[in-house]
Amino acid sequence: MNRTTLSFLGITVFGLVIVTHCAGLRNGGTERCICKGNPLKSMRPKRMQNIEVFPASASCAKIEIIVTRRKTGRKVCLDPKGEQGERILRNKRKLKPANKSKLKRGKRQRRQ
C-alpha cells in the first residue's frame, strides 16, 4: 500500500472513533445519577424516615432527593421540581447548624 492510502485509512479510523465516542456522550452515557426513571411527585411525610438531598455535581447534572420509607427502608426518588420537592429544598437551605463548636471534627475537639 502506498503512503497516501495508509494516511487516509488512519484518518478515517480515527474520525470514526471520535464520532462514536461523542455520540455516546451526547446521550448521557457518562452521567451517573442515583435517580433513574420517573421520580415521585409527593409522599406522605409520616411515611418518610430520612431525606437526603444531593446537589448537582460533575457526575450528575441534576439535583436529586432520596427519601427512605419508614416501614420498608426502601429508598425512592422525589421530584425536586414538584411542590413537595421544592418545599424540601427551601427548608434544607434554611437549616444551618446552630452551634458549630458542638460538631466533632478532628482529634483536638474530641479530647476537650
Automatic annotation (TrEMBL):
<dbReference type="GO" id="GO:0006952">
    <property type="term" value="P:defense response"/>
</dbReference>
<dbReference type="InterPro" id="IPR001811">
    <property type="entry name" value="Chemokine_IL8-like_dom"/>
</dbReference>
<feature type="compositionally biased region" description="Basic residues">
    <location>
        <begin position="90"/>
        <end position="112"/>
    </location>
</feature>
<keyword id="KW-0964">Secreted</keyword>
<protein>
    <recommendedName>
        <fullName>Chemokine interleukin-8-like domain-containing protein</fullName>
    </recommendedName>
</protein>
<dbReference type="Pfam" id="PF00048">
    <property type="entry name" value="IL8"/>
</dbReference>
<dbReference type="InterPro" id="IPR039809">
    <property type="entry name" value="Chemokine_b/g/d"/>
</dbReference>
<dbReference type="GO" id="GO:0005615">
    <property type="term" value="C:extracellular space"/>
</dbReference>
<feature type="signal peptide">
    <location>
        <begin position="1"/>
        <end position="24"/>
    </location>
</feature>
<dbReference type="GO" id="GO:0006955">
    <property type="term" value="P:immune response"/>
</dbReference>
<dbReference type="GO" id="GO:0008009">
    <property type="term" value="F:chemokine activity"/>
</dbReference>
<dbReference type="InterPro" id="IPR036048">
    <property type="entry name" value="Interleukin_8-like_sf"/>
</dbReference>
<keyword id="KW-0732">Signal</keyword>
<comment type="similarity">
    <text>Belongs to the intercrine alpha (chemokine CxC) family.</text>
</comment>
<dbReference type="InterPro" id="IPR033899">
    <property type="entry name" value="CXC_Chemokine_domain"/>
</dbReference>
<feature type="domain" description="Chemokine interleukin-8-like">
    <location>
        <begin position="30"/>
        <end position="92"/>
    </location>
</feature>
<dbReference type="InterPro" id="IPR001089">
    <property type="entry name" value="Chemokine_CXC"/>
</dbReference>
<feature type="region of interest" description="Disordered">
    <location>
        <begin position="88"/>
        <end position="112"/>
    </location>
</feature>
<keyword id="KW-0202">Cytokine</keyword>
